[in-house]
Design goal:
By secondary structure, the protein is mainly alpha-helical. The chain has a domain of about 210 residues. Helix content is about 75%, strand content about 0%. It has 14 helices and no strands. α2 runs antiparallel to α10, α3 runs antiparallel to α4 and α4 runs antiparallel to α10.
Length: about 300
C-alpha cells in the first residue's frame, strides 16, 4: 500500500509533539483526543459505513472504562482488563443490537439513546460498585507484568500506538468482503440483500466491532486518566462523538481522527474567550457542516485535487 508524503509528514509531526511541549496539560488533552479518535473510528463502522444511527457508543466507552476500573481496583491484574472490557461491551452490544437492528432511522437512534441513558443510570445508582456520581479514583495504571508507562508522555506514545493499530484494522476491514458488505448495506439495504448480503448480520458485526473499539478505548482511558465518572460517558458525550464523526467526515478513516482531534482541542483553544467560546465553537461546527457536508476530510481532499489541477 502506497503511503503519501503528506501522511508521513503528519505522522512525523505527531511523534515530535512531546519534543516541543512538556506541558502536562497539553499532553493530557492530546491523550484524550487520541482516545476519542479510537472511539469515533469504532462509531464509523455502524454509522459511517453501515448507515445505522448509533448514539450508544459513549455507553460502550463507559462500560469499558468502568469494567477496567472495577476489575483492577479489585486486584485483578491489568493484563486481564482489556479482555474483560471487550467481553462486557460485546455482551452489551448484543443485548442492544439483536432486538433493535431491524429498526431504521430515528427509531434506531431513539433506542440507542435510551440504552445509553440506562447505562448511565446504572452507573449513577449502583454506588457501592461504581462510586455513583463521585466516580472511581486511584485506578491502577497500565501494567504489563510489572512494566508500564510512566508519565503523560509515555502514555501519549502508548495511546498513539493503540490508535495506529485501530487504524490498520479499520483499513483492512474497509477493503475486505465485510467492509464492502457494510458499504453496500448503507447504499441500499434492498440492493445489498438482493446481492446475497445478510444485512442483519452485517449490522450486528458493525455494532460489535464498534463496541470493541469503544471498550478498549475505555480500558485505556480508565488506566491512563486514573479516574472515571458518569459525566464522561453521558448523553452529551454521545452527541459529541457523533459530531466528531460528522465534522471529520462520515465513512472516512482520516476524517474520524481529524474530527475527534479538532472537536477535542477546539474548546480549549477558544477557552480564553470566556463565555463566548461556546458560541464560537457552535458556529464553527455549523459552518463546517454547511460549507463542507462531506466533513473536513472531504474538504481537504477537494482542496488538494484543485491545487494539483492548477499546477
Amino acid at each position: 500500500m502506497k503511503i503519501s508524503p503528506f501522511l508521513l509528514l503528519c505522522a512525523a509531526a505527531t511523534l515530535a509533539i512531546p519534543v516541543f511541549t512538556h506541558d502536562g496539560y497539553v499532553i493530557q488533552l492530546l491523550n484524550i483526543a487520541i482516545l476519542n479518535a479510537i472511539v469515533v473510528l469504532g462509531l464509523n463502522y455502524a454509522t459511517g459505513w453501515t448507515g445505522q444511527i448509533n448514539f450508544a457508543q459513549a455507553a460502550f466507552y463507559g462500560l469499558g472504562a468502568y469494567t477496567t476500573a472495577i476489575a483492577t481496583k479489585a486486584g485483578i491484574p491489568w493484563i486481564a482488563a482489556p479482555f474483560l472490557s471487550v467481553l462486557i461491551v460485546v455482551i452489551a452490544s448484543l443485548i442492544l443490537a439483536l432486538p433493535t437492528l431491524r429498526l431504521r432511522t430515528h427509531y434506531l437512534a431513539m433506542t440507542t439513546i435510551g440504552f445509553g441513558e440506562i447505562v448511565r443510570l446504572i452507573i449513577v445508582h449502583w454506588e457501592p460498585v461504581t462510586g455513583g456520581t463521585s466516580g472511581l479514583r486511584a485506578i491502577p495504571g497500565i501494567s504489563f507484568f510489572g512494566f508500564g508507562p510512566q508519565g503523560q508522555i509515555q502514555h501519549y506514545y502508548l495511546l498513539l500506538a493503540a490508535l495506529a493499530v485501530a487504524v490498520i484494522v479499520a483499513v483492512r476491514i474497509r477493503h475486505s468482503t465485510l467492509g464492502r458488505a457494510m458499504i453496500a448495506t448503507k447504499d441500499s439495504e434492498i440492493g445489498a440483500e438482493q446481492s446475497g448480503v445478510d444485512i442483519v448480520r452485517i449490522k450486528l458485526f458493525a455494532f460489535m466491532i464498534g463496541a470493541v473499539y469503544a471498550g478498549l478505548a475505555g480500558c485505556l482511558y480508565a488506566s491512563s486518566i486514573r479516574f472515571v465518572s458518569p459525566d464522561s460517558f453521558s448523553g452529551t458525550q454521545a452527541i459529541l462523538l457523533m459530531m466528531m464523526l460528522i465534522v471529520g467526515g462520515m465513512g472516512s478513516i482520516p476524517g474520524c481522527i481529524v474530527g475527534a482531534v479538532a472537536l477535542t482541542l477546539l474548546p480549549e483553544i477558544l477557552r480564553f474567550l470566556g463565555q463566548w467560546y461556546l458560541v464560537l465553537y457552535g458556529l464553527g461546527v455549523i459552518c463546517i457542516i454547511v460549507l463542507a457536508p462531506g466533513g473536513l476530510a472531504s474538504a481537504a481532499s477537494v482542496a488538494r485535487v484543485r491545487w494539483v489541477g492548477q499546477r
